[in-house]
Amino acid sequence: MRALRVPAPLIGLVLLAAGSLSAAEERRVAIVIDRSASLKHADPQGNGLTALVEALALALRAGDRLALALSDAPGLNETSIKDLQSALPVLQGLLAARPLRGGANLQGALLEASEWAGAKGTLVIYGDDDLDVISSEG
């Protein structure tokens, strides 16, 4: 098991953006992370996940609600962002969400995250284009 290393630029982005936060209406951001084995081939270095975390570090602001859904775990992990420094553990958790062995059933995670975010919320999906579609007949 490897220790989690947070890139210095990410920490810098979080700290720089923290000064520009202001109280605003609550935004809901739901993130669905595909952890299927196909991502080991589609994004072997995890650059897409790193880019997602960097974008969130720049975009999140005080008062935002953030929910994380992993394709291999039931339920949403929900948190309220007080400031970007308080978001750092969530962002570090996202960086640790590396692909696992086997496939993923994204349907449940997508439905739950979409319902949680609502019509005005934002739904962000990290995955690849290797989706298996199975008809209702199997």
List the helices and strands and how they pair.
Blueprint: H1 8-18, E1 28-33, H2 38-42, H3 47-59, E2 65-70, E3 77-80, H4 84-95, H5 106-117, E4 122-126
Parallel strand pairs: 1-2, 1-4
Antiparallel strand pairs: 2-3
Helix pairs in contact: 1-3, 3-4
Helix-residue proportion: 25-40%
Instruction: Give the amount of beta strand, in percent.
Output: 15-25%
Q: Please provide the count of β strands.
A: 4
Order of helices and strands: HEHHEEHHE
Tell me about this structure.
The protein has about 140 residues and is an alpha/beta fold. It is about 40% helix and about 15% strand. The protein has a 4-stranded mixed β-sheet with strand order 3-2-1-4, sandwiched between helices. Strand 2 (about 65-70) and strand 3 (about 75-80) form a beta hairpin.
Concise synopsis of the structure shown:
The chain is α/β, with parallel strands linked by helices. The chain is 38% helix and 15% strand. It starts with 7 loop residues before the first helix and ends in a 12-residue tail after the last strand.
Q: What descriptors fit this protein?
A:
138 residues; disordered C terminus; disordered N terminus; alpha/beta
